[in-house]
Amino acid sequence: MNPLVAKLETVAVLSVDDRQALEAICGNTRTFHKGQDIVSEGDRPAHVYSILDGWAARYKMLPDGSQQISGFLIPGDLCDSEITVLRKTDHSVVALTSVTVTALPREALVELTHERPKLAQAFWWATLIDMAVLRAWVVNLGGRDAHARIAHLACELHARMKHLGLLRDGELYLPLTQEHLSNALGLTPVHVNRVLKRLRDDGLMRLRNRTLTLLDAERLAAAAGFDPSYLHAEPV
Asked: 10 Å Cβ neighbour count for 30?
């Protein structure tokens, strides 16, 4: 199944016609190499990109040349849905792995949501969930210590991939470096490494060879203060 359809069906019950109509406007695919911008700040793209495979990250470039990651994107996520309303993008999206996307023509997507209320509702719910995730990140950065920050992000990413059926025997392929984690969580790579070791030694989670294993999901969630309800993964 198209990952975008799978994501929308975690928040809405779509008809066969709705699914077919959405898949019909999914255009050509394109592959971006690791480190390549999929969308750059200030772009005015004519298409909305949906990730088919791979991982990407939203980021803002700071005046000193550093970057701040504000979200991780997985299959099914839209890279730049705001350009259906805004004239240009206000952030960039970079490929963290090789990323394959499908291009949805902006005007066709707008027309589709006008013609099909259930799809419009699904996209709106997906947008609200993205906003809820961003709020959770703000709380994570401002209200939790390093131990809880990393635990919370691990729980969130594991839950998001689980909802889409993308886990492998309960484990999560996580192609994020300690630099990515430190950037997203406001920590140094050394601190991230220290906390990952502590979480492993405490029998809560293990990140090894790009594979995240929740050794004790219940205790990890408790340590993180993680409540998955903000992901709203129930069709309406």
From this structure: 14
CA distance 213 to 169: 10
CA distances from 128 to 50, 107, 112, 144, 177 (A): 17, 21, 19, 23, 28
Q: In a 10 Å sphere around its CB, with 0-12 CB exposed, 13-18 middle and 19+ buried, how is residue 218 labelled?
A: exposed
- What CATH number does the domain located at 144-231 have? 1.10.10.10
Q: Tokens 């975690």 correspond to what residue?
A: 10
CA distance 154 to 131: 18
Q: CATH number for 3-116: choose from 3.30.830.10, 3.60.15.10, 3.40.50.300, 2.60.120.10.
A: 2.60.120.10
pLDDT in tens, 100-146: 999 999 889 999 999 999 999 999 998 899 999 999 999 999 999 99
